[in-house]
Amino acid sequence: MKPVLGITLGEAAGIGPEIIAKLCARDRLAPYCRPLLIGDARVLELGQKIAGMAFQYQQVEKPEDVDWDGPIAILDLNNLDPATVAVGQVNPASGKVTGDTLLYALDLLKAGQIDGMVFAPLNKEAMKRGGYQFEDEHRLFAHYLNHQGAFGEINVLDNLWTTRVTSHIPFREIPHYLTRENILRAIMLAHGTLCRANVADPKIAVAALNPHAGEGGLCGREEVEIITPAVDAARMQGIDVRGPFPADTIFINAFRGDYDAVVTMYHDQGQIAMKIMGFQFGVTVAGGLPYPITTPAHGTAFDIAGKGVAKTDATEKAVMIAARMASRQ
Known about the structure:
Blueprint: E1 4-8, H1 16-25, E2 34-39, H2 41-51, E3 57-60, E4 72-76, H3 92-110, E5 116-119, H4 124-129, H5 137-144, E6 152-157, E7 160-164, H6 174-177, H7 180-196, E8 203-207, H8 222-236, E9 240-245, H9 250-255, E10 261-264, H10 267-278, E11 283-287, E12 293-296, H11 313-328
Parallel strand pairs: 1-2, 1-5, 2-4, 3-4, 5-12, 7-10, 8-9, 8-10
Antiparallel strand pairs: 6-7, 6-11, 11-12
Helix pairs in contact: 1-2, 7-8
C-alpha cells in the first residue's frame, strides 16, 4: 500500500493553503501516497477560495477515522479562524498555530499513525513571534524528537541533492564552525539521506571555502588543514566523496550529472546555484531525522499570497520524495 503522508497547510497568511487546495483539486497527491491533510478545515476552505477550485473532503478527528475510499481527508484541528489573519502579513498567532500543527504531526509520526510528513511553506518570523524560538524548523524537529544524531536541511532539485556544513548563522561566524568533525558529519548526513531515498552508491562532491580551493594554501588554509582531511576520513568509511572543488565551478559538473550530491560550506554557497537553476521546483528534506519530512524549498511568498497564482510544482515534488523515502523505510 502507498504510505500515509501527513500534509500540513502551512502558514495561513501565505500561499500554503492555496497550493494544497490546488493539489487536492487536481488529484496530485493520491498518485504518490495516501494523503491526510492536517490543519484547520476553515483554512483549507480559504485555500479553495483563493485557488478558485472546490472539491469534496471529509473531516476527521483522528487518522483511524479516515475512509480511504472516500474523498481526501483533513484532520481538522479547529485551531485557527482565517478571518483573524490578514493574508500576506506576518501574524504571531498564525505562526504559533503553524508550530503547534507541526508538533501535532510529529506526534502522529512517533505514534506510527502516519509514515511521513510534508509541510506547506511556513514563516520563520511568524513562528518566532508566536513563541517558537528556534533557529529554524529543523532544530525544532530535532529538539521535539529528542534527536541526538546529525541532522540538517538538504535541498533537492531534479536529481541533485545539496547540504551544507553551516546554515542560518551570520557570515562572520562561519569559520568557527568549519571543523573536520562538522564537515565529516555533513558528508555522512548527505550519504545517509541519499541511501534512504534509494539512491544507490551516491557520489558526493565537496565545495571549497576559499577562492580557487585555496590555491594549495596560498589563498587560505582551510582546504589543506580542515576540508581535505574530512573528505579523506569519509572516504575511509567507504563513501564515494571527492573534493574540495572550487565553489564557482562545482555546480557546473554537478548539474551535468557527475554527482548525486554537493556538500557546501555555508548557506548561500549552494542555495544561489540551486535557486537560479530552478527556484519553483526545489524541495527541502529534513535530513538525518528518523522520519521522512519534506517541504517545498520556497517560502510563504507574502507578495503573491491571496492572488491565486502560486505554483504547485515544488510541493508536489516534496510529496513525491517523502513518499519514496517512506516506502523505502
